[in-house]
Design goal:
The structure holds two protein chains of two kinds. Chain A is mainly alpha-helical. Chain A has three domains: 112 residues, Leucine-rich Repeat Variant, CATH 1.25.10.10; 78 residues, Leucine-rich Repeat Variant, CATH 1.25.10; 71 residues, no CATH class. Chain A is built from 19 helices and no strands. Chain A is flat and about 85 Å long. Chain B is mostly helical. Chain B folds into three domains: 126 residues, Leucine-rich Repeat Variant (Alpha Horseshoe), CATH 1.25.10.10; 90 residues, Leucine-rich Repeat Variant, CATH 1.25.10.10; 68 residues, no CATH class. Chain B contains 21 helices and no strands. The model of chain B has no long low-confidence stretch (mean pLDDT 91). The chains are: A mainly alpha, B mainly alpha. Chains A and B meet through helix 13, helix 14, helix 15 and helix 18 of A and helix 4, helix 6, helix 8, helix 10 and helix 18 of B.
Chain lengths: 328, 321
Amino acid sequence: MRLAFSPLPWFRPARPDIPALQAAGDIDGLVRLLASPDPDVPWQAAGALAGLGTAATGRLLGEIDSLDPGVRLGVVEALGEIGDPAAAVPLLGVLAGDESGEVRWAAALALGNLGGKEAVPSLVQALGDPDKYVRLGAATSLGRLGWEPAGDEERASLLIARQEWGSLRPLGAGAYRPLLRATRDRDPAIRVRAVDALGELGDVQGSEACDLVLRDPDSEVRWRATLALPRCGIAHGRLPMGLVRRPRQGKSPLVAAALNLLFLGLGYSYLDRWYGLVLFQVNLTVIVVASLVWGPFLPYLASYSVSALFAAQTWFSARRGAALAGMG
Amino acid sequence: MTPALLSFFRPGRPDIGALKADGDIPRLIAALRHPDLGVQWEATAALSSLGPEATDQLVRRLPARDRAVKIGIIEALGEIRDPRAVDPLVPYLRDPGAEVRWEAALALGEIGDARAAGPLVTGLRDPDRYVRYGTALALRKLGWTPADDGERALLLLGLQDWAGLAGLGPAAVPALGLALGDREKTVRRKAMEILGEIGSGAAIPAIYRGLRDPDDEVRWQAVCAGPRCGIAPMYLPRGLSRRPRVRKNPAVAGFLNLILPGQGYLYLGRWWGVLVFQVDITATLWLFATAGDQPTYGLLLPIYVILAAHAWYLAGKMPET
């Protein structure tokens, strides 16, 4: 321990003595450390728990539903290291249902460590997980369990999980459905590779897949789709209609101008200009003070005349900006 | 929900086959606005299957407000391949919508009338890469041959044939300079990389522009390309120093927090700035009502100064991304 006494114990808790806890067989103490904010402590605690062997299995299984993903991660790591077959069923539950991608990933790897064949169906299903790390973990574990894909579709899922895009082409139509799933992945880099691979396959089976990739929020995916789809027999002339439906990220000049007309300044705030709110406050203050002197009619009339000028300026400058932020 | 209400949100699939059999052009054009891309494609195919007899009607309906309608009609005219459509289509090469320009270029390529080549060539300089690509494909279809290496470079740029551009050597520099103005950073990166490969002194102004690029990777490529094009490494730091600063301005953050406490934090991306702002307004009103104006200013102004200093300090600590 570096500090025997910390003057601010809440801010800098002393480093726990993990080897001593392990030697004393203090399972509860080690489990508590899995929630430590110190990045080095949880993995050391998980290692110590694993060192306690099957004696710790029961207590660890009791924490597998902890609310803290850090604790669940430590529990799964330790269970994977211990390799007690009793942990297989709870780990299958984690793989299928945990909301944290990292915990599912660890569960996939732990099931490979346990070595029981009963995990194979769930791991095969995890090849379709929305998280690429979980897919990679499942592929690794399936390899360790000596699993062989049953058909082209399963083989394609395995190759996509390992991101071996180049090996997909010989699979032909069998790769289509797994690739279509990959074009919906969260990671734009995966979607780019999936679209490229669809182009190499030379078949997109209908407008739905085209619609999806041409409307992708990522500009690189849309561009690759433009290059890939003509290789799938979609005429070039059909693509603009699909691409025009893409999400537009630019701000609407009309909204900016309307905001500046009605609430002078807020149109600029909408366009991320820092001075928008200042202008809004100044305008309001001037109207309020002027209303005290001349009554409300004249100040509002004057204010809206000024706002109209600002709105027109906003309309033109925002349109210029929108044209620049156009297609991408 | 009643079926009527449901159909308002999710319009049913029109019977394109029946509309086509009736030759019902107005309703086929209406189907171009359908939310389903498959229906839009079917409607376009049905319109083009009506052949040259439909050309006049389609051309008359071209000046539509809806972009999907415009694109669908242009696509159909391209597939009908009636040369009478060339003159009406040419103005759409300058449409404000990039997809419309793209489709118009492709359609003129499909029609295959050599008269379109002249107006199409300007599309090789379009700021949008899709339009440049469509234009290059169309020109190739028309059998157009570039007059010189400069035009050849523009054609290669349209096709995004980077290896071809590198092979052209210094003649490709103006086209690559154009690509450096593209809004897509992957295009700018690639263009800068090729400029470095070519290593021509003619690229020096383009490299200075690249050093000011908002994308760091483009700037890095420019730093690598500079010495190969004959810029002394000594001069690179000055070029780079003029890049756009994306860091939040500490003076603005401090100023905002001084006059509108909390807004400085909001400007720095701290969501609780709006809470500080509201608490300040409430506290100011309450103090005015209970203690009068002098004590209010006396108490709040020093707090505002502290908040301003804090926002200024926070902004200064933020890294430049």
